Amino acid sequence: MNAADHWGLRPVHYAAQLAPVNVLCKLLRYGIDLNVLTTSGSRCATERDKYSQWGRGDLSPLMLAASHGREYAIQMLLRNGAKPTLTNSRKETALHFAAATPVCMEECITALVGQHTGSGRALANLQVLDWLVICLRIKKTLHVYDI
Asked: What is the homologous superfamily of the domain 11-141 according to CATH?
């Protein structure tokens, strides 16, 4: 259930970003780790990330759900113990991925912001630039361009 494939992804990573929410729900019954990060993929992977590194290492299921705009998957992961403040090696959280993706909805960002404020790790820990990007992303999602 928690074995990684040759790209470094586990079933929970695929379910968070691609599968119907009921598949993720079934995986939760098996007690899978919702905070497991992807491992670096093998060199045979054809996709490079934005830093030109092979594979998709260092991503949590919540980060993947956020990067794909999966509102219901985000909510399910958060309700079942996924940590919204978990960071990868680049100090990015799921909120960064939600703000950066063009498919993300306001509801995805709102769910993650709500979890950040209630998690004991204050939003003040996010850098000012990060907040500016997030706020601009929300305004773009809401089609408000008067800034």
From this structure: Ankyrin repeat-containing domain (1.25.40.20)
